[in-house]
Write a structure and sequence with these properties.
Blueprint lengths: L2 H20 L1 H24 L3 E2 L3 E2 L5 H36 L34 H13 L11 H5 L12 E2 L24 E3 L9 E4 L3 E2 L7 E5 L8 E4 L6 E2 L2 E2 L45 E3 L8 E3 L7 H6 L16 H6 L52 H8 L9 E5 L5 E5 L12 H4 L1 H13 L8 H6 L8 H11 L18 H7 L2 E3 L7 E3 L32
Antiparallel strand pairs: 1-2, 3-6, 4-5, 7-8, 9-10, 11-12, 13-14, 15-16
Length: 569
């Protein structure tokens, strides 16, 4: 029995290093341990100023320290091998244990695993707003794909997310960069070619320090709409009333062409796992029901009517783990992506309202105008998994459902049912008026119009929550199917986790440490794996295609002049 403790000690002492050496996750932890060992060594050298381990003791040390240093030096030489081995195990153990408590400097990398093991994030107070999640997903898919949302009657969310969640168009996709000068091709409306890439060309692509042959600050973005100014909605029409504004950048022979965003559209697939969304993280994790800026916007509120006979009340709301909802309400009012300048969200909601009259009344005073049919310009497949039962195939749009019906099916009545109408002043002040009989003018909004961004944001998030790729070969591999990856893919995986250190930023089942799960467990700030180990917002490290000073990304400010970066705030 006396030999049992020794056998246990030997098994653990030998087994842990072998496990660490023979598994990808173990080797990743050893890489991290080596970095920490080096940091500890540098710290020790800095703090123990009197002791010089290789050359004895400093001449400036006191006599007592000199005698102690001499003894320590002899003993340290004899025990160095054992101590180093033991220290490696201790350091690894320390790294594993510190992950339980570290919030500002989490242990990285986060090991890869199957996405099937990760729950889809969702606000814990969602039930305060949504009464039927299936109906909300149906509404979200319709709004995501509907071309009628754009001021031009052609632009939708899916316009830039239609190709596996991303944008693969190649014409009219060039943004000239901050200098507003096109250096690539023939300027606006240019057809990009393979030979245009890369925009930063080196004599030796494998050596970043080799001679620069050419450099352009142009960016491949995503085309939006032409530059116009909003006048009013056009009841019964998908196209808003608007006037053309001169565009000094995006034009061909002084004729406006579609504007282009300064960054290319990120994928909607698996975007629900992101703690924040947009490349610069401006779509906050907390959804305020109005815009992308979450709790940072002190003036954002929705309206609630506990009783339809009572005047709606202003309410500040916050739904956590809802950055996709925050993201979804950005483009519909963006003057490059989908909207004429000056449009507000109630205008978008009103486009689909069946109880409208125009400001300048036509001859048929008070005549109710037809509502816009959901997806009224598009064919909906009869076997669509979400909208098929309401498909009007082979005619466009949905049957038996208006957007008004779809909102009422999905959301609780206190957010859309009220006998009051709302007038919005030029300073965004609200006036509540008991709703008269008959149709409304286009400057009069009902509760559903006003809260339209709340409905649109949450519905699109719930739809996009279904766009999850959790059965890719990499997921199957981590589910236990060793043949799911080819030998070449396994070689790439090894480089990804070890020599390439890609996993330091692209860890976890989500392939990003900017995920809800990683941020919740380890905090919003991490040390970057470069010399000096600077602290950065978790997952937001050099994600731009140009030098940082040309595109600050998360380091910039939001419209309220708040710093987007948690690191800088």
């Amino acid at each position: 029995m006396e030999i049992l403790p020794s056998l246990i000690f030997i098994s653990v002492f030998i087994g842990i290093p072998l496990c660490l050496l023979l598994t990808p996750s173990g080797r990743s932890f050893l890489n991290s341990a080596n970095v920490r060992r080096q940091q500890a060594k540098e710290s020790l050298a800095q703090n123990m100023k009197f002791l010089i381990l290789r050359g004895g003791v400093s001449n400036n040390a006191p006599p007592l320290i000199t005698r102690l240093g001499a003894k320590l030096s002899r003993k340290m030489k004899r025990g160095m091998t054992i101590a180093a081995t033991f220290a490696a195990v201790v350091i690894v153990g320390h790294i594993l244990a510190s992950g339980l408590s570290a919030q500002t400097v989490p242990p990285f990398p986060v090991p890869l695993t199957s996405l099937k093991k990760v729950s889809v994030p969702e606000p814990d107070n969602l039930n305060e707003f949504v009464k039927d999640k299936v109906a909300a997903i149906r509404l979200g898919k319709a709004l995501f794909w509907d071309m009628q949302v754009g001021s031009d009657g052609n632009q939708s969310c899916a316009t830039c997310h239609f190709h596996a969640g991303t944008d693969n168009r190649s014409k009219n996709q060039l943004h000239p960069g901050p200098d507003k000068i096109f250096n690539t091709g023939g300027g606006s409306n240019y057809q990009l070619k393979p030979e245009d890439y890369p925009f930063h060309k080196l004599s030796d692509p494998n050596d970043r320090f080799s001679t620069v042959l050419s450099d352009s600050n142009d960016v491949t973005g995503s085309q939006g709409i032409t530059l116009t100014e909003f006048i009013d909605i056009n009841p019964g029409s998908a196209v808003d009333k608007k006037t053309v504004q001169p565009d000094d950048v995006f034009n061909v022979n002084k004729i406006n062409v579609r504007q282009v965003t300064g960054r290319n559209t990120p994928s909607a697939i698996n975007a629900v796992f992101n703690y924040r969304n947009f490349w610069d993280g401006r779509a906050q994790n907390e959804f305020n029901g109005q815009n992308p800026f979450g709790n940072r916007d002190p003036n954002a509120f929705v309206l609630k009517s506990p009783k339809k006979q009572s005047q709606p009340e202003k309410m500040k709301i916050s739904l956590k783990n809802a950055s996709l909802a925050s993201q979804a309400v950005g483009p519909p009012l963006n003057s490059v992506e989908e909207s004429a300048t000056g449009r507000i969200f109630p205008d978008v909601g009103q486009k689909f309202d069946s109880k409208l009259k125009v400001k300048k009344l036509p001859r048929e005073t008070g005549k109710k105008l037809k509502s816009l049919t959901p997806l009224g310009k598009q064919l909906v497949a009869s076997d669509d998994s979400v909208l098929g039962q309401y498909s009007n195939w082979p005619q466009p749009g949905l049957k038996q459902k208006s957007y008004e019906d779809m909102i009422e099916d999905a959301f609780k009545s206190e957010w859309w049912d009220s006998q009051y109408i709302i007038k919005i002043g030029s300073n965004n002040s609200l006036t509540f008026i008991k709703q008269p009989q008959g149709a409304k003018a286009t400057d009069e909004f009902n509760l559903s119009d006003y809260n339209f961004p709340l409905f649109m944001g949450l519905a699109i998030q719930l739809y996009e929550s279904t766009l999850v790729s959790d059965n890719a070969p990499i997921d199957q591999f981590y589910d236990g199917n060793s043949n799911a990856l080819t030998p070449q893919q396994k070689q790439g995986l090894d480089i990804f986790q070890n020599k390439g250190l890609c996993i330091n930023c692209h860890g976890g089942a989500e392939f990003t440490i900017a995920s809800v799960g990683t941020v919740a467990k380890h905090g919003r700030i991490k040390r970057v794996p470069i010399p000096g180990k600077p602290a950065q917002d978790t997952g937001f490290f050099n994600i731009g295609v140009r030098p940082t000073l040309e595109d600050l990304g998360v380091g910039g400010n939001d419209p309220s002049d708040n710093i987007r970066s948690r690191r800088r705030s």
